[in-house]
Amino acid sequence: MPRAEVGTPKYVANKMKSKGLQRLRWYCQVCEKQCRDENGFKCHAQSESHLRQMLVVGEHAGKHIADFSSQFQSEFVALLSRRFGTKRVKANNVYQEYIADKSHLHMNATRWVTLTEFVKHLGRTGVARVDETEKGWFLAWVDNSPKALAKQEAALKKERLTMSDEQRERLLIAEQIERAAASSSAQPDTDLSVPAPEEGLKRSEEAEKVVLSLSLKPAATASPPTSEKPAAAMAPLKMNPLKASTINPLKRPNVFKSAAPASKDPTEKSKKRTISAAESIILEDQERKRRKT
Fold first, then answer.
1. Whether 86 contacts 143, CB under 8 Å
2. Cβ of 248: how many Cβ atoms within 10 Å?
């Protein structure tokens, strides 16, 4: 049956019946024809015009799918930027507004099967910032135009001029922390190793046995008294500071008294030198008493 000509009552009646959205699976993107039921779509698929068009598309199927995909993405992003700007909005709401146009490019002609895959593609390419919540996928358009970038840079300069020194230092510290975290995540530090769990003292099987003896050892033999004499001989003799003050400068020295010790045996000198400190103190005390008397 031939198609009704434009302007005829049949054409108007068909347009009124096809008002609004219909089933997506009964739409032919190659011929851009929407069928109202399964029987109509089956008849269209068997028509000569559809088969001829499919032969043309089949020669370069990848090229046609890539063209449909780029066209769908450009139209979707244009609607997102024009209608919502850089606001965060639910992805399904944008898609419902996009398919409200009856002559829109259907998604089943693109490389994306679902809306979720298309939204993830926008996030990977940097066209929009996407995030998933309990309510679904949300996206916000990223304006990368030169005019928008210049505007952001001017706003950032103005903010830095009005910012105090303390706030500026805090901002710089925060940026340094972010850069350090990014560098550490990109290049993991090999020096920071996980500490090994602490283990108790373990004795190897090859080690010798430790034997403890509780028997008392014999007391060490006392050193002979002659061994203390050299130590006493090395000890310096203490001088009495009062002895020099008691000497009378007017008293004449006794020549015989000073010469007497020189005539003695040298062994006696060594005996005098070996006297202890206590004995030397006693002798000095006796000498002091004798002079007073």
1. yes
2. 7
Please tell me what DSSP assigns to residue 14: H
Per-residue model confidence as pLDDT tens digits over 96-126: 888 888 778 888 888 898 899 999 999 999 8
Could you count the other beta carbons within 10 Å of the beta carbon of residue 120? Answer: 15
What whole-number distance in Å separates Cα of residue 77 and Cα of residue 228?
107
- pLDDT tens digits for range 143-195: 877 776 777 777 777 777 776 777 778 888 999 999 898 888 776 554 545 55
The torsion angle over the Cα atoms of residues 117, 129, 21 and 49, rounded to 10 degrees, is: -50
In this prediction the pTM is 0.46
| Measured distance CA(94)–CA(79) in Å, rounded | 8
Q: Which tokens in the block code for residue 290?
A: 């004798």
Q: How many CB atoms lie within 10 A of CB 68?
A: 19
Residues 6+ apart with CB under 8 A from 139: 80, 88, 89, 91, 94, 119, 122, 123, 128, 129, 130, 131
Question: Which ranges constitute the DSSP H helices of the chain?
Answer: 9-17, 38-45, 48-59, 61-83, 91-98, 115-125, 146-162, 165-186, 228-234, 243-246, 255-263, 266-273, 277-292
Contact in structure between 85 and 43 (CB atoms under 8 Å): no
Per the structure block, which two tokens stand in for 180? 């350090």
Per-residue model confidence (pLDDT) at position 246: 52
Which range (7-21, 23-37, 246-260, 276-290) has the least confidence? 246-260
- Residue 235, Cα to own-chain centre: how many angstroms? 69
